[in-house]
Amino acid sequence: MAAATGMVMLMAALAILAPSAQGLDRSEFPPGFLFGTATSAYQIEGAYLEDGKGLNNWDVFTHTNSGDIVDGQNGDVAADHYHRYMEDVDIMHSYGRQLLQIFNFLGENPAKEEFDHYADVTFKAFGDRVKFWTTFNEPNLFAKFAYMLGLCPPKHCSPPFGTCNSGNSQREPYVAAHNMLMSYAAAVNNYKKNYQAKQDGSIGIVIAMKFYEPLRNTTEDILAARRALSFEINWYVLFFTT
């Protein structure tokens, strides 16, 4: 899984650099370093009922729980990327972006076989042109906000983390994470076995990263920092390195 691990570490590095990136120049990065742009389909796509598209969890959530959205809006039109994608690609190219990630999560509890089939369709359709694949975008945040805090669909949580109509904040985030990681593994195995050699691409995952340092050089603070890292990222990242 060297390629996958490499992509994880690249995304982690970008996340760490982001707060101070304003003063960076391309010359500070090695030749071949790729800059990219990432978004979710729902955030930009729009066209929510066009060309046979079905409703996704965010369509339902924003139309039935509009009070949970700060300004009550939804993604029915969003940035209209579905109709203006060529303009958007030109804009990104003008800013020197070489990568675009559009994340489209299949549902709140995807079966491994279903996600593998979805990935297989994309490999066949776009693999001759797409050379960098990411399977899931920030699954650690999805599990946290959707199944622990109940801030995103399907809005599952339980006290003391939140007051939702259903959910178990001490169990469901781990079930969701397990499903996503197993789906990731299926897609990566499929790509490496059936497509990578002929398509010459790489595949990985995007993990939202935070890093914690002990406040003081004491055993108590060092262990606290380690626990924070374990709860934030290790239960995902260690999946790719062990």
Keywords:
two-stranded parallel ribbon; 48% helix; two-stranded parallel sheet; 4 strands; 242 residues; 9 helices; 9% strand; mainly alpha; globular; single chain
Plain-language structure description:
With 242 residues, this protein is mainly alpha-helical. The chain is 48% helix and 9% strand. The strands form two sheets. It has a two-stranded parallel sheet. Helix 5 packs parallel to helix 7 (172-194). It starts with a helix and ends with a helix.
Please give the order of strands in the largest beta sheet: 1-2
Instruction: Report the span from N to C terminus.
Output: 10 Å
Percent helix, as a range, is: 40-55%
In quaternary terms, these chains amount to single chain
Q: What global shape is seen?
A: globular
Q: Give the low-confidence spans.
A: 1-11
Q: Output mean pLDDT.
A: 85
Q: Main beta sheet: strand number and arrangement?
A: 2 strands, parallel
| Rg | 19 Å
Tally of strands: 4
Structural class: mainly alpha
Tell me the β content: 5-15%
| SSE sequence, one letter per element | HEHHHEHEHHHEH
How many separate helices? 9
